Amino acid sequence: MILMVGDDLTALITGASSGMGRDMARYLASKGYDLILAARREDRLLELKDELKNVNVKIVPIDLSKAENCFKLYDEVKDDNVEFLINNAGFGAYGKFNEVPLDKELELIDTNIKALHILTKLFIKDMIRRDKGYILNVGSAAGFLAGPTFSSYYASKNYVVRLTEAIHEEMRRDKINVKVSVLCPGPVNTEFNKVADVSFAVGGLPSEYVAKYAIDKTLKGKMVITPGKLMKLAKLGEHFLSEKRLTRMSYDMQMRRKS
Known about the structure:
- With about 260 residues, the protein is α/β, with parallel strands linked by helices.
- The protein has 9 helices and 9 strands.
- It has helices at about 20-30, 40-50, 65-75, 100-130, 150-175, 190-195, 205-220, 230-235, 245-255, and strands at about 10-15, 35-40, 55-60, 85, 135-140, 180-185, 190, 205, 225.
- The strands form 2 sheets. A 7-stranded parallel β-sheet has the order 3-2-1-4-5-6-9, with helices on both faces. A two-stranded parallel sheet has the order 7-8.
- β1, α1 and β2 (about 35-40) form a beta-alpha-beta unit.
């Protein structure tokens, strides 16, 4: 069942202050969803709220790399009947494993994995009780590979992909009307590069396109969402190459994207 506009729909988006999170907010607002927008940068959230005047918008400035803040966010909005959760908060850390500062990697794990895990766990229980809802976890094409010189980020997205696939199948087997999807794009034109200190080896897809594509596919119940023909071909090609070969190719690709 696809929820229709007019059902008092509410969506929660983390990492909503820029990039795909911001574009997902704009698209869901155009579909009539009320929004709860969470991110660290309050000024960006206020700008977005001021832009989206056709729906109700609640902003929650918060740092989700701290586990206690994930529980705080849930407690703050649990009575708003969130029917669409988008776990978009995340970042990358470029560099060889022995060179990247450990505190930066731990913050990455807390944001990319722990926060996503906690929020998915908390909100899916409410959705199961209501027997309706959607969860979109923002992964990456990196979730299908190992990533030399980007190892922690790739590993975190592998976690996101496999966790989502498992939950999706549990919902299907139990005939629960909660759709759980993972978005696995290749390069997307956002602020991600600046934060990770890398540049793409190939041109990125427009953030607006990926945001719309991901939401539309989630509403249709698709498990793994891979926008763009290039990523679909790349995922297909993985079946014909060894893990060793894929890892070597991944290393070469990462070395070309370094700023």
